[in-house]
Amino acid sequence: MAGRLARWRGGRLLHPRGLSFTGQVELWGPLAVRMAGRPGRCAGTVRLSRGTPTPDGWPDLLGLALRLHGDAGPFDLMLSTSSQRRVLRHLPIPRYDFAGPYGSLLAYRIDNRRVYVTARSIRPLGRTLDEVASVADRDAACLDLFAVGVTGPWRRFGRVVFGARLPDEVDAALAFDPDGSRGSGPHPTGLIQRLRVASYGFSQRARGAAADQTRLP
């Protein structure tokens, strides 16, 4: 049943329609150390996706998956379009444009503090995946990364610049880690996170994603 559903949704049970890109990531501050091993630049893998099969240009729960290839090993961030307002940061919110903002929805536990992560672009990225690809081709696609505690202002700690689009077969083989368990970085917490990990693992097994993610470009 899961396999048939995955094939109907383009090979993925979750966020079936998407594009993947290489990327360059620059990080600074304490979060850079926790996520990538050190401040500075590292390679990245970026995937933007539509959460449900709505027609192009319609509002949707858009997704951003970011893999940091840092000194500490690969670390994956998985974000969904949301709001930066405190009362709404836990809720996925449909958006028209792939510029975001994207939020972690769940908190990361870092040094006994709860930290939320968000990403957004200061310029439109497009309402369709084809438009996003066109912006990336012009070297004009980038996202800024922000973090906030339970209270206080959002603080920028990084930037992601999109590179070349990855082939469809690589996109199909990608399996991002919702728990951060492949690396030594921070982990999201809570009951909802445990359910999320189970659903993503089920989806990835059903569609036959690559077991060894380190062999992908």
From TrEMBL:
This is Phosphodiesterase.
